[in-house]
Specification:
Blueprint (H helix, E strand, L loop, with lengths): L1 E10 L5 H11 L3 E6 L4 E7 L1 H11 L7 E10 L7 E3 L20 H8 L42 H8 L20 E5 L4 E4 H13 L4 E4 L4 E6 L3 H11 L7 E3 L3 H7 E2 L2 H7 L6 E6 L15 E5 L4 H10 L3 E5 L11 H7 L6 E5 L11 E5 L2 E6 L9 E2 L8 E3 L9 E4 L2 E4 L9 H17 L6 E5 L5 H13 L3 E4 L1 H13 L5 E11 L5 E10 L2 E8 L2 E2 L10 H13 L11 H13 L5 E2 L2 H11 L11 H9 L12 E2 L4 E3 L2 H12 L4 H23 L3 E5 L6 H13 L3 E3 L11 H17 L6
Parallel strand pairs: 2-5, 8-15, 10-13, 12-16, 19-22, 22-23, 24-31, 26-30, 31-32
Antiparallel strand pairs: 1-3, 1-4, 2-3, 6-7, 6-15, 8-9, 9-14, 10-14, 11-12, 12-13, 16-17, 18-21, 19-20, 20-21, 24-25, 25-26, 27-28, 29-30
The structure holds zinc ion (2 copies) and fe (iii) ion.
One zinc ion binds next to helix 3.
């Protein structure tokens, strides 16, 4: 007879782990107990040696949603012991991030709501230990019902029986509910008047959608706006009201079968769509499908997703056609989470509101991902992934908060060698965005009951995230580390993959402040933890009007050509004569023409010169359309030489000359784009050969370009390099907080180790 004390670390709360332990123990006739702690799940088991061994191996294969990082086992004296119990949670230890992300509806719950004989038939808040809300409803750890926004819904007898029954799928499922005791659905007008309840609310919402109305839906982690995706007028209305001209909308399909009718799906893509995280997946679109052109204008891809809550499932099943499903906000503001806020902020966008009384504790937007040659890749990390922790054994035990970038912001918090990156918070230009950032910083530190000893941010003084970091460092009386933007980009990928030692990091994006005060974005950095050296960069060019160039690719083209042709540049770029004169005067006089080495702006310039796009409706649009335009015609790559120097300079001038020659010969945009992409891959190889370190990281927003990323990875691997790119953290600025945190932690380690200097 043996007795063991076992502690399991990882994502083990709210995922049916204790019922699983209970089942594994009782099936083997073992006695003892299991209990949720704030920092881990603890248990004791007692029984014959053979059964104990078998139990331990079972423990290593937990339920699908659980992730075990470590199991500590200690032999303790056997004692009088009967049966196996699930004990109450202990509150007394410091909280560790052991909380799971929100989980999409599981097959068993889906079958239940479809089954007329079940008491949860048609009930939109059905969930169990394997599915349902988590992060979006949790107020504190440990994860118990009393710490969630379900605390106001006492369990009815039937639910309480399920909650207490060890063999039930709902054993200790914290957010469970049923029509008798749980949240209720209502359809309300813009004025807040009740139009219908429960099932009638869904029916009335469907009727509104079929008439072309815009529906605001209180989803899992915030409000969403829905319209009939096949109704061009409804889609146009939504665009107009939401002030969103061309940026693609995601489409939710009632079923995988219906998604297949509009999208070309691989097996891996189908698996990702149906996974518990159920992200928006960027997939290839079939031509001639039922989706209105205005959903994703000129885009060969579609952001597809499947219903991930019972409410979405019931609504989509009732309407039987795909719906546009986009965040409930105006332009680039944060999502609404409460009914009052939605009525106020979405009152001019939505016609009707489908709401319920389960409060959303924090906004959690849909994640965005794609599956490419290397596998699954996140582009926006939110629902289903945040706040799953990343273990970073290299960073010591310091508590650090990093505040991220200005665009696609996320925060990162480290504690005990583990990092939690917040859900995607969006852009910070609006006051609402900046407020959400601060609220999330305080939410995260309070949630994990920590006080950071160090705050990290970007070098850029005008980011709202930098200003917050400065204020928090003063408030907490702790040091502030400013981390260069592209160093942070590379460091994020190093951290994610646990890479040890120096790497060559290619950080290609739109803009980030460089250590010389100019705008960087086409950078090659030699990064070793706290250290970064700029080893190569794009030859700089002026941007007439600075930030305005982001929306007007033709300005990047003019700036680029002006470097080579002077005022003759105007002959190649399409501007009204008066505006052209002003812009050329600015360039000649060097007035309001900041210099940049940005690869994003080079993409814009090439898109404009290739005739693909001269005005952009949203960030990255020109580059995306240039990527989609490319067709290989065997025309080879443009020359893109890497000039000697420290740092080396990637000279685009021969490329631009060859491109102008192509234009003069009316070479189509498809070929120009293919030759440009091929030139970039050659350049990446040239930089890697020049720097000659075995590990190469490709990151920054430009590497969201699948054509560029896949061919560069393949080329580097073909030349014997280990090529890395972000997978579960975005390559764009959404990954920046992780990188800032990693660099700050490395610098702190260097300072803290006595006698260590470099
Ligand atoms: Zn379930
Ligand atoms: Zn109930
Ligand atoms: Fe960036």
């Amino acid at each position: 007879m043996r007795r063991l004390a076992v502690t399991t670390w990882g994502t083990v709360q709210g995922v049916g782990f204790r019922p699983f332990v209970y089942g594994a123990a009782t099936a083997r006739g073992l006695s003892g107990w299991v209990r949720n702690g704030a920092d881990a799940v603890r248990l004791e088991v007692q029984g014959p040696d053979e059964e104990i061994q078998s139990f331990l191996s079972a423990l290593r294969a937990p339920p699908a949603a659980a992730r075990i990082e470590r199991i500590d086992v200690a032999e303790i004296p056997a004692r009088e012991s009967n049966g196996f119990a699930i004990l109450h949670s202990e509150d007394d230890r410091a909280a560790r991030p052991t909380l799971p992300a929100d989980l999409g509806i599981c097959a068993a719950c889906a079958a239940e709501i479809d089954d007329p004989s079940e008491r949860r038939h048609g009930y939109p808040f059905t969930n169990c230990t394997q599915c349902g809300p988590r992060f979006s409803i949790v107020e504190a750890l440990p994860y118990d019902r009393s710490h969630t926004s379900m605390k106001g819904f006492p369990l009815c007898q039937a639910c309480a029986r399920e909650y207490e029954a060890p063999h039930d799928r709902r054993f200790h499922a914290q957010p469970i509910a049923c029509p008798a005791c749980g949240p209720r659905l209502r359809l309300i007008s813009r004025a807040g008047a009740r139009l219908a309840s429960d099932e009638q609310a869904i029916d009335a919402a469907v009727r509104a959608l079929l008439l072309g109305d815009v529906l605001a839906l209180q989803g899992l982690g915030g409000f969403q706006l829905l319209v009939d995706a096949s109704n061009a007028a409804a889609v146009a209305t939504l665009r107009e009201r939401k002030l969103r001209e061309e940026k693609p909308f995601a489409v939710m399909f009632p079923s995988l079968e219906m998604a297949r009718q509009s999208c070309l799906l691989s097996t891996a893509e189908e698996a990702a769509l149906g996974s518990p995280a159920a992200p928006i997946l960027l997939v290839r679109r079939r031509t001639g499908d039922a989706i209105a052109e205005g959903v994703a204008p000129g885009n060969p891809r579609l952001g597809a997703l499947l219903p991930y809550t019972p409410l979405h499932r019931l609504l989509l099943a009732a309407i039987g056609r795909p719906l546009v499903c986009t965040s409930g906000n105006l332009a680039e503001e944060p999502m609404c989470t409460s009914e009052a806020e939605a009525l106020e902020r979405l009152g001019t966008i939505a016609d009707v509101f489908l709401v319920h009384d389960r409060p959303i504790v924090r906004p959690v937007d849909d994640s965005v991902a794609r599956v490419d040659a290397d596998g699954f890749r996140l582009l926006r990390r939110a629902r289903g992934f945040a706040p799953l922790p990343l273990r970073l054994p290299g960073i010591g035990s310091s508590c650090i908060l990093a505040t991220g970038a200005q665009l696609k912001n996320t925060l990162a918090l480290a504690r005990d060698g583990e990092v939690v990156v917040s859900q995607h918070l969006g852009d910070l230009f609006s006051a609402l965005g900046a407020r959400l950032l601060e609220r999330t910083a305080r939410d995260l530190t309070r949630f994990f009951a920590v006080q950071p000893q160090l705050v990290a941010c970007d070098l850029h003084p005008d980011y709202a995230s930098t200003r917050l970091a400065e204020a928090l460092a003063v408030e907490w009386n702790v040091p502030l580390e400013r981390v260069q933007h592209h160093h942070a980009h590379v460091a994020a990928c190093v951290a994610e993959h646990g890479i040890v030692g120096p790497v060559l990091g290619l950080a290609w994006d739109g803009a980030g402040l460089g250590i010389d005060g100019s705008i960087w974005g086409g950078e090659a950095l030699l990064v070793d933890g706290a250290e970064a050296r700029r080893v190569a960069h794009l030859r700089p060019f002026p941007l007439p009007g600075g930030e305005r160039a982001m929306r007007e690719p033709a300005r990047s083209a003019l700036g680029l050509l002006h470097e080579v042709l002077g005022r003759d540049a105007g002959r190649h770029v399409d501007f009204a004569p008066a505006q052209l004169r002003i812009l050329l005067d600015m360039l000649t006089g060097g007035v309001n023409c900041p210099s940049t080495s940005s690869m994003g702006r080079l993409f814009d310039a090439i898109a404009a010169l290739a005739g693909v796009r001269c005005r952009a409706g949203y960030e990255g649009q020109a580059a995306m359309e240039l990527e989609f335009a490319a067709v290989d015609a065997g025309a080879g790559a443009y020359p893109f030489p890497l000039r000697d120097g420290e740092p080396a300079v990637a000279d685009w001038e021969p490329l631009v000359q060859a491109l102008l020659d192509d234009r003069a010969r009316s070479v189509p945009a498809a070929v120009i784009s293919a030759r440009f992409h091929a030139a970039l891959v050659d350049l990446i190889e040239a930089i890697a050969e020049r720097v000659a370190v075995p590990r190469v990281v490709l990151t920054g927003g430009c590497f969201q370009n699948q054509r560029l990323l896949e061919s560069a990875m393949q080329r580097l691997r073909g030349r014997g390099f280990d090529a890395y790119t972000p997978e579960l953290y975005p390559p764009n600025d959404g990954g920046l907080s992780l990188g800032q945190l990693y660099v700050a932690a490395c610098r702190k380690e260097l300072r803290d180790v006595p006698g260590h200097s470099r």
